[in-house]
Amino acid sequence: VVLVGPTGAGKTALGIRLAEFFQGEIVSADSRQIYRDFNVGTGKPSLQECVRVKHHLISAVSPHTVVTAAEYARLAKARLQDLESRGIPAFIVGGTGLWIRALVDGMAATPPSDTALRARLEQRAKEEGPEAMHAELARLDPITAERLPVGDRLRVIRALEIIQLTGQPASVLRDQPAQELHPAIWLGVTRPRAELYARAEKRIDDWLTQGWLDEVKHLLEQGLDAKCPAFQALGYSHLARHLQGELSWDQTVALIKRDTRRYIKRQLTWFNANERITWFDLTREEDVWPALQAEMAPKLKI
């Protein structure tokens, strides 16, 4: 079972409820929650929630590890095979669409990284800045640029690298017809966009009062580089820039909220293009629950 939707829609709580009801386990598909030590600002399930339902690929890798879609698919596939061998339903829950597609449909063939080319692009990024690199990507591959935030330096550089190595945009290579290597029940949860934005902004305010800034300060004091992969998680780089004196507090909060709204918009665009998804509006969650049970029970043979 694949449960997707934009950030703040309520995937985590509903995924736990579904997995608990159908006696399954959750395989996370979240590019932020996969990193250890990045907790407050990633919306990880609580300890109590993890006791209710076992979660996989939460806090699973070092903050220094680059997790590509292909690497995620490899890690998740191992968990799925283990769950299947024990007869346990697997619930893939998350909002990182490319990772989920890589797992369910397989990856389009992309070239391995070219060390020399990558070094040149990295140097350009240092000299010209992330905005210039993202602008170049927007000119050469607007579809991928729309999906990636300006600050996602690693993926922007990888997308430019693919263009130079293949002569084709990553979006062209990615958008091959789906093969669905792993047959799945696709469920999507959403809310009206204004409600999604309001919920996301409230969650940001809550995280900030719950110690998000202190967490970032501690990570930096431990010697973690603010340019490492885990710091690409939404909001962490903004808070690091604030601590380094580059942004005022008001600027920091405003940018986090703005980029979160943009991320939600990109997620909606990505998932709405997938016709396999059966959508449920969580505005009235208790009304949705019976419909979800009815949708799921015959497919899980319960």
Query: How many β-strand runs?
Result: 6
Q: Are there runs of 5+ residues with pLDDT below 50, and where? A: none
Q: What is the CATH superfamily classification of the largest domain?
A: P-loop containing nucleotide triphosphate hydrolases
Identify the CATH class of the largest domain.
Alpha Beta
- What's the multimeric state? single chain
Mean pLDDT: 92
Query: What would the CATH topology of the largest domain be?
Result: Rossmann fold
Number of domains: 2
Percentage beta strand: 5-15%
- Outline: globular
Helix content percent band: 40-55%
H-E string = EHEHEHEHHHHHHEHHHHEH
Major sheet: arrangement of strands: 3-2-4-1-5-6
Straight-line N-to-C gap: 14 Å
What does the largest sheet look like? 6 strands, parallel
How many H/I helices?
Answer: 14
Name the structural class: alpha/beta
Q: What value does the Rg take, in angstroms?
A: 19 Å
